[in-house]
Amino acid sequence: MKKLSRKTSKMTANQNNPILAVIIPVYNEEGSIAKVIEEWTKELLALKIHFQIHVYNDGSKDKTLEILNQLNASNPHLVVHDKPNSGHGSTILLGYRENSDATWVFQVDSDDEMGPESFRALWVHRDQYRFMIGRRYGREQPISRKFVSFVSRILVFLLYGRSIYDVNCPYRLMKSDVFKSCFSSIPSNTFAPNVLIAGYAAHHKMKIVELDVPFRSRQTGAVSIYKLKLLKVASLSFLQTILYRGKI
Fold this sequence. Notes:
By secondary structure, this protein is an alpha/beta fold. The chain contains eight helices and eight strands. The model is unreliable at 10-14 (pLDDT under 50).
């Protein structure tokens, strides 16, 4: 597979093949990205995990990449990937594929809406489950987003045979070896690969746990999908969710 990202890091030899690879896609988050990286690094160090944080800069137009490179100079656990803009879905899928040699893969977004304080609750369940997913609570969203979430949840249930409440939650811990073929089978241009991954886990009757994770509104940056655009990309996501059923 051709890699699309360019890495810059201060990795040492003993950091290769970590137990945990954290995947963080980022686009125009200059106001929050330093705080996100610093807080996640602090939490994972406290848990004494052998980890790397892989941040994928998806062609940001602000100072995000500059800030990441500054952080990279002093944080040995940080790996910065700079790539052309291709969208959130294809970016996280690239992150999964490039880091599936780690024992566990965890994905979280860069907007600081879901913090590291809840990660410990997922991590302690890793011996009992193969897929641990956050369930956002305290989240206020418009009717249009509630509708999209509801339809995605129903589709996963009807097509893949199990109900998962927050199928697209960007706070998920996955055992890499059981998802590696899933990461490879999902088309690179998929808008919401996390929904398909939830479907894959349901279809294969994996041991899954959902845990509540507090949600807080973003303090910086801006939501990139609104109203009509949301409905358009949601329709694409629904279609891709249906079509993926035939690939597994």
